[in-house]
Amino acid sequence: MRTKMRILGFNAEAVKPMNEGAAAELGAELLGEAIIFVTACSCLMLEYRRHQAQQRRKETERRASWDAMRDEVGHLALALEALQAQVQAAPSQGALEELRAQLQEVRVQLCARSPQPEPQATPVSEE
């Protein structure tokens, strides 16, 4: 009874002695409540640890997926650089058109310098 009074915040000095049956009943009640309290606290602690482990696992998975995405972006960047190098190494469409125009001009100039052969008359045979 003194312990119960102290827990509740009362002065425990002025408590009358209890008979043995009431003291046993009060002790059993106190012990039962203590067991329930300890069990509830243990369940809360286990749940908290389980939750923390789950959070750590999720964080690890998140980091792994982030690293995988970063690696994939790196590979894509390398592939893009390779494609850009190929595009720069290949002649552009404008350059090809310019070369064709120059070739056409050279052909025109060559045709203008060389006299065109006159067509030969073919003898017509009379039969």
TrEMBL record:
TM region positions: none
Sorted UniProt keywords: Coiled coil
Signal sequence interval, chain numbering: none
UniProt keyword annotation of Transit peptide present: no
Coiled coil in keyword set: yes
Record Pfam families: OPA3
InterPro entries recorded: OPA3-like (IPR010754)
Its job: May play some role in mitochondrial processes.
Family membership noted in the UniProt record: Belongs to the OPA3 family.
Name the record gives this protein: Optic atrophy 3 protein homolog
Organism of origin: Galeopterus variegatus (Malayan flying lemur)
